[in-house]
Structure formats: C-alpha cells, structure tokens
Amino acid sequence: MPFHLSADQSACPRVLVINPNSTVAFTEAMMSALRATDVQLDFYTAPTDTAPASIEGTYDSVVSAAACLKELRTEVGKWDGFVVACFSAHPLTNALRELTSAPVMSILEAPLLYASTLGSRVGILTTSPRWEPLLNHDVASLHLTGQNAAGVVSSGLKVLDLESLPREQVMRRLCDKAREELQDRRQADVIVLGCAGMVGLDTAIREACRPGMVVLDPVRCALEMCVSLIRIGGKTSKIGIYATA
Amino acid sequence: MPFHLSADQSACPRVLVINPNSTVAFTEAMMSALRATDVQLDFYTAPTDTAPASIEGTYDSVVSAAACLKELRTEVGKWDGFVVACFSAHPLTNALRELTSAPVMSILEAPLLYASTLGSRVGILTTSPRWEPLLNHDVASLHLTGQNAAGVVSSGLKVLDLESLPREQVMRRLCDKAREELQDRRQADVIVLGCAGMVGLDTAIREACRPGMVVLDPVRCALEMCVSLIRIGGKTSKIGIYATA
Amino acid sequence: MPFHLSADQSACPRVLVINPNSTVAFTEAMMSALRATDVQLDFYTAPTDTAPASIEGTYDSVVSAAACLKELRTEVGKWDGFVVACFSAHPLTNALRELTSAPVMSILEAPLLYASTLGSRVGILTTSPRWEPLLNHDVASLHLTGQNAAGVVSSGLKVLDLESLPREQVMRRLCDKAREELQDRRQADVIVLGCAGMVGLDTAIREACRPGMVVLDPVRCALEMCVSLIRIGGKTSKIGIYATA
Amino acid sequence: MPFHLSADQSACPRVLVINPNSTVAFTEAMMSALRATDVQLDFYTAPTDTAPASIEGTYDSVVSAAACLKELRTEVGKWDGFVVACFSAHPLTNALRELTSAPVMSILEAPLLYASTLGSRVGILTTSPRWEPLLNHDVASLHLTGQNAAGVVSSGLKVLDLESLPREQVMRRLCDKAREELQDRRQADVIVLGCAGMVGLDTAIREACRPGMVVLDPVRCALEMCVSLIRIGGKTSKIGIYATA
Amino acid sequence: MPFHLSADQSACPRVLVINPNSTVAFTEAMMSALRATDVQLDFYTAPTDTAPASIEGTYDSVVSAAACLKELRTEVGKWDGFVVACFSAHPLTNALRELTSAPVMSILEAPLLYASTLGSRVGILTTSPRWEPLLNHDVASLHLTGQNAAGVVSSGLKVLDLESLPREQVMRRLCDKAREELQDRRQADVIVLGCAGMVGLDTAIREACRPGMVVLDPVRCALEMCVSLIRIGGKTSKIGIYATA
Amino acid sequence: MPFHLSADQSACPRVLVINPNSTVAFTEAMMSALRATDVQLDFYTAPTDTAPASIEGTYDSVVSAAACLKELRTEVGKWDGFVVACFSAHPLTNALRELTSAPVMSILEAPLLYASTLGSRVGILTTSPRWEPLLNHDVASLHLTGQNAAGVVSSGLKVLDLESLPREQVMRRLCDKAREELQDRRQADVIVLGCAGMVGLDTAIREACRPGMVVLDPVRCALEMCVSLIRIGGKTSKIGIYATA
C-alpha cells in the first residue's frame, strides 16, 4: 500500500510527497522530518515491483516515473499540491504538471530558486560521484546554473549508505565535504543538500561551516514552496508546455 | 510616521512590507489586499520629504533606497523578513540583505521564481512605456530572463494612474493588454503583474484570459515566499555578496 | 511482435530504429522511406497496451519510454546503433545511452547538429500548436538553440493527421507553412521537419521554397549520423552521465 | 567644498571625475595621476557627513550615490562628460545617465570594454576578499563576463590600505598577486586594476609580469574613453533606459 | 600606390586607416570625413588586382585580408594604431593584432562597445539584405549581442550604391529605415551605421529620428577609440590569442 | 601539383580533403589513415610558396585560406563534399561554403558535434600552449562550448613535432596529457584530438585512458560526417550567410 494518508480530516490543503523510489525508509525519514502548519501531508512510495530501490540515473528515473504515474494518474485530483522527492530533473515532475493544475514542486528546483535570493554562489552536496555529471547536466537543462555556481560535489556516499551506515560516519563525511570542498575550495555561500535522503541534516552541516553559511534541506524547501503557492492560489498553467494533452 | 505596525503582539514572525515610494495610498492598497496566516504584518512608507511619489527610473530608485535605509538601518533587527515592494531591481533589496540575515524578498524576483515552476513563457504587464526597457534591463541583470520569456508589455498607464483613474477604466486597459499582447501575440502562459500598485488585481485579469492562464500578484508572491523562507529557517548568507561590510 | 527484423544476415552493422509510439503505420512509413547502404536495418514499435498511439507531451514520453525500455533492456546487445524516432528530448534516448555503449541518435538532435554546418538560421516545422512550446523547451534544454534560431512553427496538423488526411492536403499545409512562416517571415535558411511522421516529405517541401533552401528529414538524418558514428567506431562514453549505473 | 575646479577657462570640454566616497586622498591621487590633453578636468569628492570613507558593498554604494546625486543633480549641465570613479556597478553611473545626455563612464566598464579589443582573457585585481564575489556579481550583471574571463582576484589589501601602508609593501603585494594568480594560475592576458585607489600603478605592475602583458588603469581608461566620446559627439541616448523620467 | 600618407611630420602618433576593399572612393570619403587632433592620419586602400571592389561575404573577407597583409606585413612598425574599416568580423583585424602590439580597432567592435555605455538597445543599419545574416553571425561570434539587441536591418542599398546613387535618394532610404525599422518597430535607442561607406552620414540620420536618439558613425568611433588607446599607452597583449606566432 | 586524385573513376561521390598548410607529410598521414567506403577520396595540399608549413595563428589562417581559395575557386564544382583539415575556425570553411552548395566540414566542428551525442564533458587535446587560448576563442565563437566543457589542454608538442619526434615520445606525451589532464583533473568523458596531425592516434590514446573513455580523431569524424551528409543529399544553404555573393 504505497500511500501514507494523513489522519487529519480538516478542510486544510492536502499535499502529496512522492518518493519515486521504492525504499520505504526514505519515505519514513521524510515523514519524521517534515512539519507543515495547516497542511495535510500525505506520502507515497513507488511500488517495489516496478520502481528501483534508489534512483541512480536516467533509466531509473524513467522507469520510476512511469511506475508512479500508473498509480497516481487517476488519483491526482485528491491533492492541492505535489512534491517530487528526487533531487534531479526527474521526469515525473513535468509529467504531473501535465496531469493537474495543482502546483508540483521538485526538490531540485525549489532549493535552487530559494538559494538565488539568499546568496550568490550556490553549491550542491550530493551522494555518489556518478551524480556529479548527472546533476551538472540537470541543473543546466533547467537553466538553473547561476553565473557563479559553485557546482556539484559528491560526498562519496551512495544513496543507500545514508540509511545503512552509522549516522556519525555519514555526518562526518557530509560535514567535511561541505566545509572543505564547497565552502573553502569553491567558495559557496549557500549549500543545497542534494538528496532526499539528507532530509533533516541541514542544521548539523551548517554548524560544521563558517557562521553565516546557509544550508538548505531540499525536501523542506520543496514542501514549503509548494504550500506557499497553494496559499496564494498558484496554479500550473494549462496553456503552454503543461497543457493537458 | 512611516511605520504601520500590526496590533498583533503574539510570538509569530514579523514581516515588514516596504513601500519605497512616499505615496501612502499604495501602502494602504497593500494593507487591504494582503493576508498572511500566523504572521504579523507591518508596513513602511518612504518619507515624503526625501523619497519620490513614485519610482520612475534609476535616479528615483537610488534616492528612495537611501531614504529608506536612513530610517531602517538601525531598525532591521525587529523583523524576521522583509518585502521590498517596488517591481524592479531596486537597490534597497541587496542593501538590506547586507544589513540583516533575515530573508529579503523583492516583488520582482519572487513572482518570476514562482512562475518558472508554473509555466514556460512568462510575460510581465507593466505600467508606462518607460518601464519596458528598464524592466528588460533589470530582468536580464538578475539573470531571470527565461529561454522563452514573453517579455515586458506596457499598459500605457502611469503608476499613479492606477490609483487616480476610474477602476473600470484601469481594469479594462490591463485586461486588454494582458489578453491581446501577452496571451495572444506573445503567447505567455504566465503573466506577472509588474507593479506594486496592481496588488489584488490578479483574479480579474486572469478571468479576462483563456482558461488555464496563470496571473501572479507580485506583492502576494513576495510576501508568501518570504514567509515560507521564515518557516524553514532560511537566512540570507553572510559569506558572499551579502556579508556585512 | 514489436520487432521488424531485417532478413539480411550479413556481417554488416545492425541498427534498430525505434518508434516509441504504438502506431505501426509510422513504423511502416519509416521502413518504406529509409535506405542505408551496408547496414542491416531493424525496426521496433512500442507495444499497443502500454504506449500511446502518438506522443503528445511529457506524460506520453515517460510512459512510452518505460514501455520500450521494458522490452528492449535485455536486448540492447544485439545492435550496433539506435535511432529514437520521436522528435523531442524523449527520455528513451538518454536511458538507452546508459544501457549501451553503442551510439544512440535522437531524431531531434541529429538534424539540428547537421543543420549547424549547413546554414545559420534553423527553423523547425512541427505538427500541432501544442508542440511549439514543448519543442522550444526541449531544444533549449539540449542547448541546441542557436544564436539565430528561427524557432518552431506548428503546421496545425496533428501527428495522426499526417497519416489519415489526404496526402495532398497534408503537403499543401506543410509547404505553405514552411514557405510563408519559416522562410519568409522568420528567415530560416534551413528547415528541419519536426516529426517522425514527416519521413520522406523533405523533397516536396524544399521544392515549395526558394532555390537554395535546405530541408532536412529528421529520421534520415538520425539514421545516417548513427551509421556514420558506427563507421568510425564511435561509442557512447561510459564515464560521465551515460555511465552504466 | 567638494569640487576641485580646473583653473583652465578655455573653451575646451569639461569633464567631472567623481569620487563617490569621502576620502579626499583618493581624489588627490587621481588629480596627480590624470592628464588629459585639451580637456578641463574637474574633480568632486562625496561629502564626509553622508558618504562613507570607502565603498565596501551595496549599502555604501546606495548611500554614496544618493549623497552625490543630492549635490550634483542641479549641476550636471556644467560638464560635457562624467567619470564615476568607483570600480563597481555603482548606481550613480546609471542615475547620472538619466539626468544628462553627456556621456557618463564607469571605471568598471571602460577598462573591460577596452580590454576586449586587446586580449582574450581578462582578469581583475581587486582589494579585499569581500570584493571578489561583489565584482563577480557586478561584472555578470553588466554582461561583461567574457567567454574566457580570468576572474577576480583579491590582493588582500583593503581600499584604505592602498593609501596608508608603505608604498613598497603595497606594490609587492599587488605585483605578486598579478603575476602569480592572474598571469600564471589563471592565464590572464590583460589585467585590469580593480580600484580607483590603484590609479597610476599600472606601469609597475606590468613590469612585474611577462613581457607582452597588458595592465590597465581603470581611471585613466574611463577618462580617456569619456573624452573620446565627447570628441565624436557621443551622447547618452534619451529614448531607452536612460530617458529622463 | 595604396598608401595616402599624411604630410604632417610632427612627433604625434600615426594611425593607419585601412580600407580592405579596392575602391578608392571609399578611402577618399573617409579622408574627407575624418578629423583627429594631434594624430597623423594615413590611409591605405587594398590593391585592385587582388582585393574585391567591395566586400560581400566571407570569401571577399579572406581574399582582401590576405591582399592587405601581403603589403602591410613588413610595414606595421610604422604606425601606432590601426583602424580596419570593414563593418564585419573581418579577419584582418585579428591577423594584424598578431603582427603588432599597437592597438587595432575594427569599425564593427568600436561603435558597439561605445554604444553599450550610451543606451540599452542597439540596432545596426546595414546595406544589402545579404549582410543581415552575416552581421548577425559576426556580432554573435564576437559576443557583442546585447541582452536586448535591436538587431540588424538592411537598407536595401548595395555598398557601391552608397557612392553611385544620388545622395538624396541614399539619405531618404537610410533615414526611413533608421526611423521606421530600428527606432519605431525594433525600439532601438542607439543606431550604429553598419558600413564604412556611411562615414559622415550620422548627423542627417539622427535628425530623421526622435530627439534623444544616438547614431554612431563606425569609422569615427573606431578611429577615436584607437587614438584614445594610444593616449593611455594601450597595447595589444602578446600573451594570449594575439601572441606573435 | 597540389592535388592527389583518387584513381577510382566510379560514379561514387568525390570528397576533397584539404590540408591548408603546405606540409605534404600531413597530407600523406591523412592519406594513409583515411578509409571511406564508396567514396572517391582526393587530397589537396596548400602551395609551398604562399601557404605556411603549419598554421600557428590567425595570420597563418588567413594567408593559407587565401592561398587555397586561389587554386580551388574555379575547381569546387568537381567535388561532392569538402573536409577542411585544420583544427580551428579556419576561414576557408565558411569561404568554401559560399562558393559551393556541397557540404563543407571542418575538423573542429565535426568531432565536437558528434561528441555532444556521446558524452557530456568534452575536452580537447591540442599541440603547443599557443593553441589553448586560440581554440578556446574559436570554440566559443562557433557556440560549441558546452555547459560542461572540459576545455582545451596543450600537449606541449608543436604541430611539426608530431611528424619529427620519435613516435614513442609523441605518444607517451599525448597519452599522459589525455589521461592526467583531461580525464583525471578535468573529468572529460570524451576527448577530441585537436590537430589534423594526430590522425590515426585515437586508439592508442583511448587505451591509455579508463575503459569507457571516448577518443575522437577529428579528420575521420569530419570525413565521415561529410560523407553522411552527401548520402542524405545534404546541401549548404544558399539563402543565409552562405549565399553566393
């Protein structure tokens, strides 16, 4: 049963946070970390039989997007907003935008958009080295490369390591990379955590950096940006690329 | 007395909405139109003796920014967030970012950032023809020109016309320009209202367009984006260009 | 049976042309139109039960890509090159590049790359108006927008109209749009036919334009570029974004 | 008395060099270093009570611009050209362009424009590390970032150090940074001195570099470019962004 | 005898204005129109046997550049600066920069650089329609395309028409195109005359436009920018792309 | 006698490979290395009296282009396609495109276009350090700089060293630079050999790199891309910048 539905039955807006891989532990980490006032938060995990346990490239993205769409297509009317919790230009984001006029927020876009108002040199801390070229590609294809982007730095940890390795070891590695590579060598002034699996780790990483550094948790950014759009009645346009086919 | 302080004395976050021109009617229009849950909203109007009645170019921007900074500089610690309510690359925005670590949101940036997630061809409806080249310049200097920007269209109305002309005449002009110039001729799928004085006009203009068009009120966008950043603990970075001098 | 395998059993290279929608008529049109010396040409049509009859947006792209990948994943070792016959940034292209080191050519990229050596102002003639914003988006995301791109022009015909309407009516519409919109109004000097369903129509459209106009059939371009890469031993790199996950 | 007026009463053109900070020593350094044939050179220093002693960010820029504009606004008709002697996208430049049709030259723009005709990889040598991100931002906002810009390098000296530290120590530091960081590590072929306070230091720094290196003094560049525009009757356009409001 | 040497034998700087086509009438028009204080102006016309009478494309550019280089190569030490009087990215410019450390100014670059400080939307008025795509290409290859370039407009006159047709007819055509196409339709605020053969026509064309329009004569711009560089000791860098081979 | 004409008198297409320098050894190296099925390959070497022995900058490019054009101008009708075998934005390429409607392929463009479909971070291995800035400039002027270009790396070998030094020494140097600088330090996933004189060295260099690296021989790429265009009837457009003057 892929949906974790909020028990809240009030009239407040409902947002669905979509984990497009099939690892329930990631969904649960998001459930623990996320709080949103006046919003009913539901969660969805991609099916284990058709979606991969973690998303490690374009093939995984396509297959996981299709797996989610199969289950979600007829259900999209139930929510007032969506968060796609894969830190990439995951095709589920634009596909959902075609299916609904509710706002759909990607955890790649939201923190980069916020960051553009908070600093001038944004760096991304990601998982395995494989994601460095992939994220450079995705950020460029979304035209989110700032003039002074600090770039993408791999922590050397795999996505699944974030859950399976001892927390202390994970944090030491992430803090070191954030401070040494992004802050000191590449002179980032904002660090975006580049994986849904890093939800809730922003405070510890910020404390490892110079005072004044900003560290953004992409899942919280995407949820909050989605909710803020709902509050102002923001809709996905149905005239241009997201017109219903 | 330039500040309109909220009577609310609760512990919820406080946001200051800054009108950098000296026309109180614009501030009052924003006071009427804005609602924000769980936020104490204060308003500020630039002083009549040093700031212009409306901002019509770079000279006005510089002078009004300095006038505001003189009064605000020692007060910035009182708020958790700021909205700069001039639809331009007004220099007050970056100057405030230097003075505080609270988020500072410009009504130019916020709607364009939201728009980038809602559509693919964003157009701006502004006031007098003079603002067409100025806004093209400002949008480009902020690197917010999308690949497929629909551009800036003047309504032919001056800023002060928005308050002084009959409402019906104002609305007909704005609706016609939005539909004919931005929607039909330039194929915008998102329209951003390009003046603080257009606060609250979004619904009427959207209704004049094709179903599925998105129309964004820049003041509400900036307030909501500012509040959402406060909710996630977002701060202005103190390491790069916004470091305190 | 989705594969049309060449009877040729010689040792020459084998290329698979993939129609990612389920309309066999499009595959057959390509089979009739394509000739390649010293190459064994096989064809594949996406399955009717899971893939759409034509691809009209991102949702269709994702679903059709996943449908093809399910059948092709374990078979990719059989071919020396692949052509993805959907005129878009179809996600199947990059997903296949992850699965194989054989060259994979998209019918969007190949004609635009050739065109950059043949002229200086390239225009695209597509099908329904819906594809104008989608192709503008896709071309930009691939960084194939030239400094002087003439843009994307819709013929007003739907993809399936290309097969179902009388040939004469189809040709008149395409020729008129190419000449009036792309050649005369937008001053294109190269016209790329923007749909796999237009395979073989290049000569007639060129004859409707000024002498010296170049009109490129995207399917033939992609096939020939793929074959030429095979001839020089060109491989998909396994180090960067296309590394096998 | 902020103006140092030339004693020359001939009919030759008059140019005002504006030091927008209040440190007279910088103005005097420019008075000593600048020579211009057939031009009456006047100098202006910003008022000590309202302008900062040196400009260290956006707040200082805005405040100093407003302080200058208050004194200059009604006087601009007296000069045939203006030089704004702050190496940044100082808002005084565009504000003056609105107030006059005489050419207004910024000491940031002029050397970068000249440099684009003299070499292919331009580097900037600035003062404190704080100016590295600020100048990267300003150069980008002016669209003066070349394809192969060598970037901005801080000498580690504060603006006021240029006047207060022993000359030998200042020169050694500047020469070392120019040679080691800009020439050797970043392969600049043109070096622009990035502070008005470096006026007259170009020869010594060039001699510390490889033969054939070009080092540009930004104040002399701006003055000469301004004078050259006066010679050809060049005016600030009154139609676009610099139209008088 | 291709050189017209100034009779002036004083010690002031010598500049060579190079007409890379073989039509002496164009050289003579420049001789009549140009004045430069304190500079010895020499002129050179490309040889009639090897260079074309006018430059109408890339072939002509290459052949004329080689013809000039053959005669100029061993002579370049005689001048302190050079103007290449063909309004294009003529290869003679960069070839000369390799041969000398004196500044070499192209009549394409100089007015566009000046224009970037005088307005925000620069348009080019050229001769025959053939030059529209060529100049779009050249301007883009020099990275001189502004964010808001008004583009290139052909007057429909051939280069040689400028000399052979009645002056009144030439002027009416140029004035109409400048006003109707560049000023009114494309909203240029600076117009650059796009042919050496238009030397001296700037005043008449400006008078045909709205008050406040700026019209730049490219030959005078290039000469004055060259002279101004000589005044500040500006040299072509010998380290990067212009290093002597 | 500058032409080496194929003995093949069949009806298959004829392609002329142009070596625009006068060193016959380079032409002979290409004759040995190139194979093309069903194509008659002819070769041309620039004349020793007017063209340089190797091309080391813009002056050499212009002079060699003119030397070739003088001999080729009246002969271009004899071939169905052309390869310009100088790894630069050699002006002969565009000049020939004006003279013929046959496809003209540059050995700079062809491998970069192919590479864009094979990987995401393309690096160029060139000869002497002088070519680093020149190629950065040329690649930028052709708008072939990808978002994630790995840049240009000099091997420290001069063009003529490739022929005169012991093969083993040449190969060791090239392999080391490819692996250490382009693969390891700059993370290229495709390496383009940046000199016609490196024809045939691709396999050895690829074997010195990580498995999965792609190394492209520019001469073979250009020949194959040219032949592939001939196969699909691709022509140089005669409407835009390549229109016959």
From TrEMBL, chains A, B, C, D, E, F:
Q: Which superkingdom does the taxonomy of this entry point to? A: Eukaryota
GO molecular function term, any single one: amino-acid racemase activity
Q: Which InterPro entries match?
A: Asp/Glu/hydantoin_racemase (IPR015942), Hydantoin_racemase-like (IPR052186), Iso_Racemase_Enz_sf (IPR053714)
The record, for Pfam families, names:
Asp_Glu_race (PF01177)
Query: What is the similarity comment for this entry?
Result: Belongs to the HyuE racemase family.
What protein does this entry describe?
Asp/Glu/hydantoin racemase
